[in-house]
Amino acid sequence: MKFDDKVPIYYQIKTYLYYDVLTGKLKPGAKLPAVRQLAVDLTVNVNTVQRALTEMIAEKTIISQRGKGNFVTEDQDKLAQLKEQLVMSQLAHVYDQLHRLNLSDSEIVASLQRYIDQKGAPQDVERISD
Amino acid sequence: MKFDDKVPIYYQIKTYLYYDVLTGKLKPGAKLPAVRQLAVDLTVNVNTVQRALTEMIAEKTIISQRGKGNFVTEDQDKLAQLKEQLVMSQLAHVYDQLHRLNLSDSEIVASLQRYIDQKGAPQDVERISD
Amino acid sequence: MKFDDKVPIYYQIKTYLYYDVLTGKLKPGAKLPAVRQLAVDLTVNVNTVQRALTEMIAEKTIISQRGKGNFVTEDQDKLAQLKEQLVMSQLAHVYDQLHRLNLSDSEIVASLQRYIDQKGAPQDVERISD
Amino acid sequence: MKFDDKVPIYYQIKTYLYYDVLTGKLKPGAKLPAVRQLAVDLTVNVNTVQRALTEMIAEKTIISQRGKGNFVTEDQDKLAQLKEQLVMSQLAHVYDQLHRLNLSDSEIVASLQRYIDQKGAPQDVERISD
DNA sequence: GTGGTCTAGACCACA
DNA sequence: GTGGTCTAGACCACC
């Protein structure tokens, strides 16, 4: 057992941008802020931003146009696929956690349904780290 | 946007122990390893372990017997409540994430069901940090 | 029979602060002295103060604002509940003590009433430890 | 503000014996255990026990008969007075505490009555040190 | 041996 | 400057 496995910042930046893209804060075809601007906004090193972007360019979520900037892809299938991937990642994770707690598949679905149903009264649910 | 929100080690220890208790690795009434032993096993300081235990003792998940050791509570209601809390915490988190991605309540349930159905073929789902 | 059950300092600090809050020496929303200042004032270690505060923060009597300070909650319900808890704690204790002396419920109330009535003339009552 | 004012052990012994006498564990006229035996039972020094007894003898709660032992007084008035003193000490203390919390005389009596009435369901009242 | 408490000193994040 | 966390080492009470 080892603790403190901090998530790399460049990875956190990727996730951050994924959400911006998928929630529409950055629309398809939109120009991203300049790398140096992003670095300032996020108070991280330029290289760290660049590393995140490089990976997103490689997977074609972002299109780099030399001398003009970086742009969100307009490929709707690509975006749909990305969203699917994010969603499945989240689900896989929660599924594993609940499975560890010996919940059956149907119990997992039922408990999610139950959570949603009773969500009206927040009841001060405290986040417990993984 | 801020990064690097490191989860305190004592908190990670709590979660670690919660899972040990709820998955039956530590059965009700079982004696926990000595504080100093836990510190060695987890390669953290004794006080860090103690802090985690102190909180779990305060909430009565663990019963401390001075000079003898720490023991998992035998109160089944307490344990059931703890499990419920952990499950709800996980669900609340994933729900929020998927909600951010503009999935409706029913879509969230449906996608979970879909994930479970197609789980047979793993398809290399990569974990994406929150 | 065992003696010397020393009350932990961090616990005494909590009680001390509870009274400050409930008697209005520290008003709702007021900023507490800095942790390091409190440590000096009370001539204890910073960590001991911090431990007391951590517990009070966990129970939401105190609101911690990173980098700014610790503040008394402005939640009147919370404060009323805290006061109720303190009062009941005191009453439970005295009730148990008098019960041990074979006073009936009504005798206990009557003796309190009697104490209050004759309180005008102090008569040199000496405190006897519990 | 100073913490950690530990109560002298000899004083705790006095209180301990007071309760034994007043609850009937030590009846009027009964012989107390030998000083050396008491010291063993309470795991304290003989001199500490002696100091407690000396004070109780001086106030005539205990009668010392040279060579025979120490005996609880048979003076009923004395015992009644002692009990009254203990009760009043407790009441004075709790009264002061609640007064500090700005409860009026009548509120103090009322809250005690309330405590007794609802005492059926214990509700896990936590002792808060003075 | 066990757990519980306290101190001293350090480092980090936030402002 | 602030609070939050972690480490190292010590002492005590209980068994």
Account of the protein in words:
The structure is a homotetramer of 130-residue chains. Chain A is mainly alpha-helical and 130 residues long. The first copy, chain A, folds into two domains: 9-74, Winged helix-like DNA-binding domain superfamily/Winged helix DNA-binding domain (Arc Repressor Mutant, subunit A, Orthogonal Bundle); 77-119. In chain A, 55% of the residues lie in helices and 6% in strands. Chain A has helices at residues 9-22, 35-41, 46-58, 76-100, 105-117, and strands at 62-65, 69-72. Chain A has a two-stranded antiparallel ribbon with strand order 1-2. In chain A, helix 1 crosses helix 3 and helix 2 packs across helix 3 (46-58). The mean pLDDT of chain A is 88. The interface between A and B is large, with 55 and 55 residues. Chain B binds a DNA duplex (15 and 15 nucleotides) through residues 2, 4, 6, 8-10, 34-36, 44-48, 50-51, 53-54, 64-70.
What structural keywords apply?
homotetramer; about 130 residues; mainly alpha; Arc Repressor Mutant, subunit A; 2 domains; two-stranded antiparallel sheet; 5 helices; 2 strands; DNA-binding
Summarize model confidence as the mean pLDDT of chain A: 88
Give the helix tally of chain A: 5
Q: Output the helix-strand order of chain A.
A: HHHEEHH
Count of the separate structural domains of chain A: 2
Q: What is the CATH architecture assignment of the largest domain in chain A?
A: Orthogonal Bundle
Proportion of strand residues of chain A: 5-15%
Q: Largest interface here, residues on each chain?
A: A-B, 55 and 55 residues
Helix content of chain A: 55-70%
The rounded Rg of chain A comes to 18 Å
Oligomeric organization of the protein chains: homotetramer
Count every beta strand of chain A, where a strand is a DSSP E run of 2 or more residues: 2
CATH superfamily of the largest domain in chain A: Winged helix-like DNA-binding domain superfamily/Winged helix DNA-binding domain
For this structure, what is the CATH class of the largest domain in chain A?
Mainly Alpha
Spatially, the strands of the biggest sheet of chain A line up as 1-2
- The gross shape of chain A turns out to be elongated
Question: What profile does the largest beta sheet of chain A have?
Answer: 2 strands, antiparallel
* SS-based class of chain A: mainly alpha
Uncertain residue segments of chain A: none
Distance between the termini of chain A: 13 Å
Predict the CATH topology of the largest domain in chain A: Arc Repressor Mutant, subunit A
